[in-house]
């Protein structure tokens, strides 16, 4: 089995050279929106240019009437969350990712969401997620309780098994350009995502 570092390097390289990205990202967004029809409040993220869903993901979610909370990255692996208002984003201080500028809330607010949409460089069929490696989301997801967690990945980023550690938090499903994958053994709340 490859190490997490090797898997991250391969995923990042594939993302840099992905063809037809705009069309693929539109398919990811369409499948995601299908599964969020009964939701009112979601926690999401501002995708970097190479990430699934495309940079317009927060605006697309908000345009459907969803209340969308995005992370604000603090030091020491901590995320806070603020309501996304289209056009009111600023470059984050830590990673240069766009972040909302409004009132901030601690990660405990995730338990009030219908779904938490998380970034990933890959997922496996057990629901284990390969993140960027800093552990921000694993720390934040501790506060989500039974709220369903969905990763956005490309089709070639779904693996049979990924290396994992005890602190890694699984996801309940993943959205790919081909559709929605639900993982066995994940939280019962995943069944509420339609």
Automatic annotation (TrEMBL):
Q: Does the keyword ATP-binding apply?
A: yes
Q: Give the family, as the similarity comment puts it.
A: Belongs to the 5-formyltetrahydrofolate cyclo-ligase family.
Binding residues for substrate: 51
The record, for Gene3D superfamilies, names: NagB/RpiA/CoA transferase-like (3.40.50.10420)
Q: What Enzyme Commission number(s) does the record list for this chain? A: 6.3.3.2
What protein name is recorded for this chain?
Answer: 5-formyltetrahydrofolate cyclo-ligase
Q: Quote the NCBIfam families the UniProt record gives.
A: MTHFS_bact
């Amino acid at each position: 089995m490859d190490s997490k570092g090797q898997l991250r390097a391969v995923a990042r390289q594939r993302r840099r050279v992905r063809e037809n990205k705009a069309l693929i990202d539109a398919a990811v967004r369409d499948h995601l929106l299908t599964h969020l029809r009964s939701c009112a409040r979601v926690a999401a993220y501002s995708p970097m240019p190479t990430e699934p869903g495309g940079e317009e993901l927060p605006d697309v979610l908000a345009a459907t009437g969803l209340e969308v909370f995005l992370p604000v990255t603090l030091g020491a692996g901590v995320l806070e969350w603020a309501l996304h208002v289209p056009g009111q984003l600023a470059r984050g201080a830590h990673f240069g990712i766009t972040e909302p500028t409004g009132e901030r809330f601690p990660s405990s607010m995730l338990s009030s969401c219908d779904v938490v949409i998380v970034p990933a460089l890959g997922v496996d069929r057990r629901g284990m997620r390969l993140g960027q490696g800093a552990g921000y989301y694993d720390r934040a997801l501790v506060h989500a309780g039974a709220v369903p967690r969905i990763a956005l990945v490309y089709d070639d980023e779904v693996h049979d098994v990924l290396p994992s550690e005890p602190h890694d938090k699984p996801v309940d499903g993943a959205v790919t350009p081909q559709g929605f994958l639900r993982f066995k053994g994940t939280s019962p709340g995943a069944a509420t995502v339609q």
